[in-house]
C-alpha cells in the first residue's frame, strides 16, 4: 500500500457560520500530501463549503464567519494573502467555465495575472499545462481557437490546465466530472491519478463509485439534526468502502440513507 | 429500509444458496444410503443429480455477478455477495464428494466385503449437521455460531480414523479386497473433506460480519490421528 505520511492541509476545530446558521461543526482532519482525498456526503452537508474554506472563497460571502484553524504546510490560510493563497490552491468547478478567450489565453491567464510577460516562458507554461492536463495532443494545432468551442470534457481539462499554469500545490475539485459523459469522466479520473504525483488533490463528489475508484482517502461528511455539517469518518478509501468503522458510514455507502 | 429492490435480489440469491445446500445434503444422504443398501440405481441417480447441482451453482454465480454489476454493492453488501460466490463453489465440491461415494457403490457392485457402514453413516450425519448449521449461520450472518461449528470437526476426524483402521484390518485379513477396502477409505475421506469445507463456509460468515479474512483456528488434534 502506498504510504502517505505528510499532511498538506491540517484542519483543527473548524467551524463555519452563515450568519447565525452553523454550516460546519468542529471539523478536524489532516489531508495527506500527494494523495487524492475524496469528500462524500449527502447534499447540504457542507462539502463544497468546506473545500472553499481552504482557498477562502467564502470570504466573498459577507455573512460567513469562521473559527478554528486551517493550515497549509503549517501556515494559517486566514493569515495568508488571498492572492498568494489562491496561487497555491487551484480550483476546478462542476461545470467547465473557460473564459471566452482562446485556449492559449485561458491557460496563460493566471501566469499573466501574476506578472509573467516573457513570451517564450509563457509558451512553455501553456504547453506544459496542456500536456499535464492530457489536452495538448487534441488542441496543439490551434491554440487560438476559443476555449468555448471545445467539448465539455475538453473544456474541463482546459480549466484544469488553467489551474495548473500557476503551479499550485493543492487542487480543489468540486464535482469536476458530474457534467461530463462517462468517457470524459474516466479521462479526468486518469488525469487526477497522474496529477497526484506533483500535486495534492481534494475532490468533492456525489458519485461514490468515482470516490471509490479514483481516490486514496475518503472523508465522509453528514448532517446533524440542526443541519450543521460534520466529518463522520475519514480513512483510506479501500477501508472506508469495504469495511467502514461506523454504521452511519456503512448505511450511506450501501445506499440505505442519504 | 431503503434499497428494497436490492434487498429482494439478495434474498432471492440467499434462497437459492439454501436450496443448493439442501441438494448437497440430499446427495450425501442418498450416496451413503446407496452404499448401505448396495443400490446401484440410487447411486446412478446421484450422478444425474450432480449435473443439476452444477447447473444450480452456475445459475447462482451468474445471478450474483449480475447484482454486483448492476447494483454496485459496497462494504457488507459486497462482502456478502462475494462470500456467496465462494460458498456455492464449496457446495458444488461437496456435491462432487457425494458423487464420489456413489461411484464407490457402483464399483463395489457384487463385491463381498464388510463395510463399516455404521461409522460411515455417523460421519455423514455429523458432516451434514455441520453443513446445515453453517449455512444457517451464513444466511443469518451469525458469526458467533459460525465460529463454533468447526470444533465439531474433531468427532468427524475420529470416525475417519476408526474407518481407516477397520479398512486396514480388512486389507490384512483379505488381501484380495485391498483395492475394495481402499475404496471404502475414499468414502470416509470424502466425508472428512466435506466437513473441512464446512469450515470454509464458517470463515465467510465471519468475514461478512467483521470484514476480516481469517482461518478459523480450531485446536487441531490432527497430528495425533493416524490418518492424513
Helix proportion range of chain B: over 70%
Q: Proportion of β residues of chain A? A: 25-35%
Q: Can you count the beta strands of chain A?
A: 10
- Largest interface summary: A-B, 13 and 14 residues
Biggest sheet features of chain B: none
Largest sheet of chain A: 6 strands, mixed
Q: Within the largest sheet of chain A, what's the order of strands?
A: 6-7-8-3-9-10
Structural class of chain B: mainly alpha
Structural class of chain A: alpha/beta
Strand content of chain B: under 5%
Low-confidence stretches of chain A: none
Distance between the termini of chain B: 49 Å
Keywords:
heterodimer; A: alpha/beta; six-stranded mixed β-sheet; B: mainly alpha; 79% helix; globular
Short description:
Chain A is an alpha/beta fold and 258 residues long. Chain A has helices spanning 47-54, 82-88, 103-113, 119-132, 136-139, 152-164, 182-195, 208-214, 237-242, 247-253, and strands at residues 7-18, 21-32, 36-40, 64-72, 75-76, 89-92, 170-174, 200-204, 217-223, 229-236. Chain A is built from ten helices and ten strands.
Describe the structure.
The complex is a heterodimer of chains A (258) and B (228). With 258 residues, chain A is α/β, with parallel strands linked by helices. Chain A has helices at 47-54, 82-88, 103-113, 119-132, 136-139, 152-164, 182-195, 208-214, 237-242, 247-253, and strands spanning 7-18, 21-32, 36-40, 64-72, 75-76, 89-92, 170-174, 200-204, 217-223, 229-236. In chain A, the strands form 2 sheets. Chain A has a 6-stranded mixed sheet with strand order 6-7-8-3-9-10, sandwiched between helices. A 4-stranded antiparallel sheet of chain A has the order 2-1-4-5, covered by helices on one side. In chain A, helix 7 (182-195) links the parallel strand 7 (170-174) and strand 8. In chain A, helix 3 (103-113) packs across helix 4 (119-132) and helix 6 runs parallel beside helix 7. The longest helix of chain A has 14 residues, at 119-132. Chain B has helices at residues 4-36, 40-71, 75-107, 117-139, 143-148, 153-173, 178-210. Chain B has 7 helices and no strands. Chain B is mostly helical and 228 residues long. In chain B, helix 4 (117-139) packs parallel to helix 7 (178-210). The A-B interface holds A 208-209, 212, 241-244, 250, 253-257 and B 1-3, 6, 72-79, 210-211.
Amino acid at each position: 500500500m502506498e504510504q502517505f505520511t505528510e499532511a498538506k492541509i491540517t484542519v483543527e476545530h473548524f467551524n463555519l457560520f452563515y450568519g447565525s446558521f452553523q454550516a460546519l461543526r468542529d471539523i478536524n482532519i489532516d489531508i495527506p500530501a500527494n494523495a487524492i482525498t475524496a469528500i462524500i456526503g449527502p447534499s447540504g452537508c457542507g462539502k463544497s463549503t468546506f473545500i472553499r474554506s481552504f482557498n477562502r472563497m467564502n470570504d466573498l460571502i459577507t455573512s460567513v464567519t469562521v473559527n478554528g484553524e486551517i493550515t497549509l504546510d503549517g501556515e494559517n490560510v486566514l493569515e495568508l494573502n488571498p492572492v498568494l493563497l489562491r496561487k497555491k490552491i487551484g480550483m476546478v468547478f462542476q461545470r467547465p467555465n473557460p473564459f471566452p478567450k482562446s485556449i492559449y489565453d485561458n491557460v496563460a491567464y493566471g501566469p499573466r495575472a501574476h506578472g509573467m510577460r516573457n513570451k517564450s516562458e509563457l509558451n512553455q507554461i501553456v504547453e506544459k499545462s496542456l500536456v499535464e492536463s492530457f489536452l495538448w495532443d487534441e488542441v496543439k494545432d490551434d491554440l487560438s481557437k476559443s476555449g468555448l468551442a471545445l467539448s465539455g470534457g475538453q473544456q474541463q481539462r482546459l480549466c484544469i490546465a488553467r489551474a495548473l499554469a500557476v503551479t499550485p500545490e493543492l487542487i480543489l475539485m468540486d464535482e469536476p466530472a458530474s457534467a461530463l459523459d462517462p468517457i470524459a469522466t474516466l479521462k479526468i479520473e486518469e488525469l487526477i491519478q497522474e496529477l497526484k504525483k506533483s500535486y495534492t488533490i481534494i475532490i468533492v463528489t456525489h458519485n461514490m463509485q468515482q470516490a471509490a475508484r479514483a481516490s486514496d482517502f475518503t472523508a465522509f461528511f453528514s448532517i446533524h439534526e440542526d443541519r450543521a455539517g460534520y466529518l463522520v469518518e475519514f480513512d483510506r478509501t479501500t477501508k472506508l468502502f469495504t469495511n467502514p468503522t461506523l454504521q452511519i458510514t456503512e448505511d450511506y455507502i450501501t445506499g440505505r440513507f442519504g | 429500509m431503503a434499497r428494497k429492490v436490492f434487498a429482494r435480489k439478495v434474498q432471492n440469491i440467499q434462497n437459492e444458496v439454501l436450496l443448493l445446500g439442501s441438494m448437497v445434503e440430499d446427495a450425501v444422504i442418498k450416496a451413503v444410503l446407496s452404499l448401505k443398501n448396495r443400490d446401484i440405481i440410487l447411486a446412478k441417480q446421484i450422478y444425474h443429480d450432480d449435473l443439476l447441482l452444477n447447473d444450480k451453482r452456475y445459475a447462482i454465480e451468474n445471478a450474483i455477478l449480475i447484482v454486483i454489476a448492476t447494483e454496485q454493492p459496497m462494504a457488507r453488501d459486497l462482502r456478502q455477495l462475494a462470500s456467496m460466490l465462494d460458498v456455492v463453489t464449496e457446495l458444488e465440491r461437496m456435491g462432487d464428494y457425494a458423487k464420489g461415494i456413489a461411484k464407490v457403490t457402483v464399483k463395489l457392485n457384487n463385491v463381498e466385503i464388510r463395510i463399516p457402514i455404521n461409522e460411515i453413516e455417523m460421519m455423514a450425519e455429523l458432516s451434514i449437521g455441520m453443513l446445515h448449521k453453517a449455512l444457517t449461520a451464513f444466511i443469518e450472518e451469525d458469526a458467533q455460531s459460525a465460529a463454533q461449528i468447526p470444533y465439531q470437526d474433531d468427532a468427524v476426524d475420529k470416525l475417519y480414523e476408526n474407518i481407516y483402521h477397520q479398512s486396514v484390518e480388512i486389507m490384512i485379513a483379505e488381501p484380495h479386497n485391498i483395492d475394495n477396502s481402499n475404496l471404502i477409505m475414499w468414502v470416509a475421506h470424502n466425508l472428512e473433506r466435506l466437513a473441512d469445507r464446512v469450515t470454509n463456509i464458517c470463515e465467510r460468515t465471519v468475514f461478512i460480519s467483521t470484514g476480516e479474512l481469517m482461518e478459523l483456528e480450531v485446536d487441531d488434534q490432527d497430528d495425533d490421528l493416524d490418518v492424513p
